[in-house]
Amino acid sequence: MGFIKQSLIFCFLLVLFSYLKSLLEPKLPLVFGGYYHPAFKNVADKFKENLKNGKERGGAFAVYHKGRLVVDIWGGYADEEAQIPWQRDTMSIGFSNTKGIAALMVAQMADKGVIDYKALVTDYWPEFAESDKGNITVEMLISHQAGLAALDEPINILDIKGDPEKVEKSLCSQRPLWPAGSAHGYHTLTYGLYIDTLMKKADPKGRTADVIFMEDISSLFDVEMYMAVPRQEFYRVARVYEDPVWKFLYKCLSSPRYIPLFFRYILNSNSLVARAGKAVKEFSLGSNIHNNPYYREMPLSCCYGTGTARGFSTLYGIISNGGINGTKRFLSEKAINKLTTPIVSGLDETIGIKVTYGPGTLMKANPRGDPMFGHTGHGGQVAMADMKNNLGIAYLTNFISLHGLGDDPRYVDLENELYKSLDKYIAQQG
After folding, report:
1. What pLDDT is stored for residue 3 in this prediction?
2. If you average pLDDT over every residue of the chain, what do you get?
3. Has residue 285 got a pLDDT over 80?
4. What's the CA gap between 96 and 118, in Å, rounded?
5. Contacts (Cβ under 8 Å, ≥6 apart) of 274
6. What is the pLDDT of residue 288?
7. Are residues 127 and 63 in the same domain?
8. 276 by DSSP, 3-state: which?
9. 404 shares a domain with 335
10. Both 397 and 270 in a single domain?
11. Positions of E strands within 245-350
12. What is the predicted pLDDT for the residue at 4?
């Protein structure tokens, strides 16, 4: 009991110190910019309010409706230390939002007949069959059912480009942690390693994921986003900020949903969620390692998609508009229906939270209870399509929170105001 009491006192003093420190630090000037249709003024006002009260310190929010950009706002600081404000061309890491983009890439390949969801992974990548993986289908792999959420031999991130054969050897030698198709568990980092390799093997030209995205999607549809940031573009990328562990744990107390997850991750190094987050060795060092430009030029579609909020929302805006952008078609109706169809639902074996997955997509409900699909990401990131209301939505922030399932209060504030304003906007359009 004495230890618990001392620990509580210690935590209280740390919180008090942090609070007093924040009061004494000089406040940076308020930064806000962008465009919004007048019907969505309340969305912009809420964003400004969060910037003023410190709830938001750096981020961007963008929305397309029926192919038209109706909200594109940003604010706060891309780099507080250097006092670099968030600007129109500021890019930020999407973390697991990137999984949704990879799902769109696979969907496009399926549209072209390059990949079949029902086919075995070994049809494209024969070596994958090693260690009892010969029965795993593309659909199982992309919907977190393959039992490959962790690696017995974690990889070094620089080997993705420097020694891809070594990476493939580690992936092929891994034995499933459960019989494929019998359960689902979030493939936190291995999703990108396996899906990126699968796309490369299936692609007739043998291109890497970042090149496929650039040539087949971003350059054709004017998407401000990279699947691997070119070093010369890194100056545009917002610096990632993360709370120290003690502060992260303290914030968990206000979000009971995440308490079991983070305690398992921090206190049990052998837990599946901990092992899943260490499949790439460098990632065990925390989010600050993502500020390294040498790491960020590695293509890794579990987390390294980087762009503007406008860029992420562009793709989902096209999809929510029927897959068409002007005279160009991105995805067929059949492909979109596949992306919006749940494959597995229930308690996730890795994170211990109930979730619903499609073919690489994550499902959530909007404030009206209508289904949305896309993906959410570590720290508060969101990129989703709402087919019923024809919306493509994206929120990015470089100030990492403990929320990763579209429930970050900063995003929820904006989402609520968006849907309150939507009917007014539609009425004005006649």
Report:
1. 47
2. 92
3. no
4. 24
5. 264, 265, 266, 268
6. 79
7. no
8. helix
9. yes
10. yes
11. 306-307, 324-325, 328-329, 344-347
12. 47
- CATH number for the domain harbouring residue 371: 3.40.710.10
Domain-located, residue 7:
no
**Do 345 and 225 share a domain, yes or no?**
yes
Q: Which two tokens stand for residue 318?
A: 């096209």
- Residue 143 near residue 359, CB atoms below 8 Å: yes
The per-residue b/e assignment along 340-376, b for 16 or more CB within 10 angstroms, e otherwise, is: beebbeeebbbbbeebbbbbbbbbbebeeeebbbbbb
Tell me: do 155 and 268 sit in the same domain.
no
What is the per-residue pLDDT across 367-401, written as a single tens digit (0 to 9) for each?
A: 999 999 999 999 999 999 999 999 999 999 999 99
Whether the pLDDT of residue 193 is over 90: the answer is yes
| Of 81-95, 285-299, 321-335, 381-395, the least confident | 285-299
Position 19 confidence tier, pLDDT thresholds 50, 70, 90: low
Residue 375 has phi, psi (to 5 degrees) of -165, 155
* Nearest Cα to Cα of residue 266 among 292, 7, 258: 258
Q: Could you tell me if residue 19 is inside a domain?
A: no
Q: Which of 371, 233, 200 is nearest to 301 (CA)?
A: 200
C-beta neighbour count of 406 within 10 angstroms: 24
Between CA 22 and CA 29, with CA 27 as vertex, the angle to 5 degrees is 155
User: Looking at residues 306-313, what average pLDDT do you find?
Assistant: 98
Q: Are both 178 and 68 inside the same structural domain? A: no
**294 lies in a domain?**
yes
Let me know whether 290 and 312 are in one domain.
Answer: yes
